[in-house]
Amino acid sequence: MPPPADILKVAIEWPGAFPKLMEIDQVSLPNHETYALQNADSTNFYITEKNRNNIKNGSILRLTTSPAQMAMQLYERVQSTSLDMKLDALKELANSSRDITFAQEFINLDGITLLVQMVESGTERYQKLQKMMKPCFGEMLSFTLTAFVELMDHGIISWDTFSVAFIKKIASFVCKSSMDSAVLQRSLAILESMVLNSQDLYQKVAQEITIGQLLPHLQGTDQDIQTYTIAVINALFLKAPEEKRQEMAHILAQKQLRSIILQNVIRSTKPINDEMAHQLYMLQVLTFNLLEDRMMTKMDPQDQAQRDIIFELRRIAFDVECESNNSGSIEKRKSMYTRDYKKLGFIIVLENSSREDKHECPFGRSSIELTKMLCEILKVGELPSENCHDFHPMFFTHDRSFGEFFCICIQLLNKTWKEMRATSEDFNKVMQVVREQITRALTVKPNSLDQFKSRLQNLSYTEILKIRQSERMNQEDFQSRPILELREKIQPEIMELIKQQRLNRLCEGTCFRKISSRRRQDKFWYCRLSPNHKVLHYGDLEESPQGEVPHDSLQDKLPVADIKAVVTGKDCPHMKEKGALKQNKEVLELAFSILYESDEYLNFIAPDKHEYCMWTDGLNALLGKEMTSEFTRSDLDTLLNMEMKLRLLDLENIQIPEAPPPIPKEPSNYDFVYDCN
């Protein structure tokens, strides 16, 4: 007779003894005040009422002190007068604080207040010993700040509770010319979280730290420090009131932030990691968003400054040909100006003055529409995405990068207009070609504006036509009725192939971030489907894994049979909560949730669009529903075209008829048949 499903065989270890194989009842685990069971892996998470159902046969558990007892012991030990004992306790506290069960107990003891007091007042006492015990001091402060960050990361208490003295102390660690790198990292992370989580703390932090004090950290070689520093700058930029952002941008320009980042980060010999790429993308978006007000401002005919700009444009465009005619009457000059402004509807006069009017490129209209197009391409005015790494190095090579970008593109527009021999009726067609030229050139991520310009030179109108023709031919080859019937016949097997690929991808698993307002040092978690497609295994990770994560290292599981539905976007529970994520369009597009039982749910934010489509397709396939993602449509089209080409190889250059050929009449006799026997 098989043992009950709730009886599990596990190994339990404790200090001073070898692990012992034991049987435990998963339903009625004892809840002892002094002792508790803990996962004997890198996480060391406690077994609780919420996660006990995730214990599996063969798990290795550790018998250890209960969370409440451990919290009390560490609370007392970190106040020890012995530096060695204090250091050991802080090291253990920093590690234990990752577990939310322990964190709750330590916070209940007012442990956060204790750590804050140690930072505010205790450091002076230890700094006196710094000359003879500098490593000890650095480690002690590092573990104190690490424990603080881990405890706050659980979101149990508000950031608004901290004093100005604590902010000043953290800021002082950042402002010092020589500081332990671990202390500096934690201090920068704390400042970023303060700024992002509280408008009141933003104002206090902004008073304590300046851009000039942050810039030296970008000039070192530690990419982690550089990343944290740019993150703090981005946070200050993001939370600054509208009226102060332009002022802050002016300060950043004065301090040559762009040049420092270009030389010490982008052109560094070290490859840029994902987190640094994200922070550079954030800075790029926030910088371009400063143009939003100008983008939304219409021309005011009563504004003398704007009128002066138009007058200056006319002078630059026409004075070359009109200087010799400047002595005419007032009426004649008015007539000439009227003609000029009519041409400036708008025109690149110096290049186009020799052509007929119908072929002239309207400079004013072109400039306005091109500006709109560039703002759309660069998403000016949109909130930055939490998962995007799409920064362009060339925009860090010039202080007025958007202006230079526009100048290159307006020249491209005029060149394309000439190549297309366009008239005013062709304006929209020209703009479509120009958009395609620009977006294709940006996909290669040019390192400089000159490289971008060179790339555009290779994307002439003729080249765009060739690309379009090639794409069109691939589509038109498969539009005849026999071909369409064959496609329809083989489509189900292609869909089955895509389904298996999606399920295999889920079996490999994906690492997801637990997105919060403090992005870096966020927790990772991993989810994967079992090989038999019956169970989803998931669990927390310390860091982003290299390769697949084994099933047995994931603490939690969800039977596929329990899944009720898969929802996406704004229908997800975690997208209905208040906060920045709800307002972020790109994060909204990457969100999905698994609903199970009555009101339980598992929330996801995919790392990118590809993983989002893989998972939503795979989950729908598991539930017997249609796979509807854009990647499924693209894969189906690609695989169908490939299969069709393979099947039609012998018919190359043969005209395929629309209707089957007629059956010929029977021959009048069969005398032509030869009997070999």
TrEMBL record:
Gene3D superfamilies: 6.10.250.810, Leucine-rich Repeat Variant, Pleckstrin-homology domain (PH domain)/Phosphotyrosine-binding domain (PTB), SH3 Domains. It holds the Pfam family ELMO_CED12. One of its GO terms (cellular component) is plasma membrane. InterPro entries: ARM-like, ARM-type_fold, ELMO_ARM, ELMO_dom, ELMO_domain-containing, PH-like_dom_sf, PH_domain. Keywords: Apoptosis, Cytoplasm, Membrane, Phagocytosis, Phosphoprotein, SH3-binding. It is found in: Cytoplasm; Membrane. Residues 291-442 form the ELMO domain. One of its GO terms (molecular function) is SH3 domain binding. GO terms for biological process: actin filament organization; apoptotic process; cell motility; phagocytosis. Involved in cytoskeletal rearrangements required for phagocytosis of apoptotic cells and cell motility. Acts in association with DOCK1 and CRK. Was initially proposed to be required in complex with DOCK1 to activate Rac Rho small GTPases. May enhance the guanine nucleotide exchange factor (GEF) activity of DOCK1. This is ELMO domain-containing protein. It comes from Pygocentrus nattereri (Red-bellied piranha). The gene is ELMO1.
